[in-house]
């Protein structure tokens, strides 16, 4: 049975004190969430360490939002997988559309990052998704397939045990416009087919595929009821502990 997960991507929000308070507020309600639903928060680098401390003894796991594409050395401003591991991260988000769009994240760099993350025993939340023009042109399935294959061509069925896919249509991120449950399910089922073609149906069945893009308490239930939607990668709504937990209670 594949795992259900609700992950909060805090992006470049919260200062250290706000972050600790938010992490503690999530922990305070985490026990309400059923055992089969994993909770992850991804604070900014600067307060991963202290947010991680706030999570100790709870079911909530810690994720980074990105990592360097090199293991160590002269890469000013970058943060390595070993550094993330040492502050208690169990996960890193990779390939978020904001990184692809604003910071030149290429599939080639992503492959390096995923390799490093897996070697450091970090789980990976790998983001894929089409933009509005691509959807309007009817290319959404092809774009998502290409993005998924470009990275996963380099990995094995065994690696897929540590990789979660997040489908995030760019036009739905932070816009208040959610994909309908049918639109999202169409892509999730398609991603699972792409995975099945490469790794076999049994492996594909076990991969957790999250939906992201204006997911909130009011729409999570309908999204999570879809066969191939195994949870959410939550941006804006993850900045309020009550909304985040409410979403996690929506299965
Ligand atoms: P949003 O962001 O929930 O604010 O749309 C989701 C994401 O980008 O991960």
Provide a descriptive summary of the structure in words.
- The chain is an alpha/beta fold.
- The chain has a single domain, classed as TIM Barrel (Alpha-Beta Barrel).
- The protein is 43% helix and 16% strand.
- It is built from eleven helices and eight strands.
- Strand 2, helix 2 and strand 3 form a beta-alpha-beta unit.
- Helix 1 packs parallel to helix 2, helix 1 packs parallel to helix 11 and helix 10 runs parallel beside helix 11.
- The longest helix is centred in the last third of the chain and has 19 residues.
- The chain is globular, with a radius of gyration of 17 Å.
- The two termini are 15 Å apart.
- 2-phosphoglycolic acid binds next to strand 8.
Primary descriptors:
globular, 251 residues, 8 strands, eight-stranded parallel beta barrel, TIM Barrel, 11 helices, alpha/beta, binds 2-phosphoglycolic acid
Calculate Rg over CA atoms.
17 Å
The pLDDT mean sits at 97
Proportion in β-strands: 15-25%
Q: Quick one: how many beta strands?
A: 8
Proportion in helices: 40-55%
Compounds present? 2-phosphoglycolic acid
Number of helices: 11
């Amino acid at each position: 049975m594949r795992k259900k997960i609700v992950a909060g991507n805090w992006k470049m929000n919260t200062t250290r004190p706000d972050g600790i308070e938010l992490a503690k507020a999530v922990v305070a309600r985490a026990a309400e969430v059923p055992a089969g639903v994993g909770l992850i928060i991804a604070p900014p680098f600067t307060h991963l360490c202290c947010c991680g401390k706030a999570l100790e003894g709870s079911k909530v796991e810690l994720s980074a939002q990105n990592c360097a594409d090199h293991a160590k050395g002269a890469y000013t401003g970058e943060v390595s997988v070993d550094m993330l591991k040492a502050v208690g991260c169990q996960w890193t988000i990779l390939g978020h559309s904001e990184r692809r769009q604003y910071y030149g994240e290429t599939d080639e760099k992503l492959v390096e990052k995923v390799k490093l993350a897996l070697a450091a025993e970090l789980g990976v939340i790998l983001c894929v998704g089409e933009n509005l023009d691509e959807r309007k042109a009817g290319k959404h399935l092809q774009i998502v397939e290409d993005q998924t294959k470009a990275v996963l061509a380099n990995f094995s069925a065994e690696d897929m045990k540590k990789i979660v896919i997040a489908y995030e249509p760019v036009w739905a991120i932070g816009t208040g416009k959610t994909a309908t449950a049918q639109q999202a399910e169409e892509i999730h089922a398609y991603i699972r087919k792409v995975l099945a073609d490469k790794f076999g149906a049994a492996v594909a069945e076990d991969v957790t595929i999250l939906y992201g893009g204006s997911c909130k308490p009011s729409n999570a239930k309908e999204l999570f009821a879809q066969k191939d939607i195994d949870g959410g990668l939550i941006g804006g709504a993850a900045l309020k502990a009550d909304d985040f937990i409410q979403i996690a209670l929506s299965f």
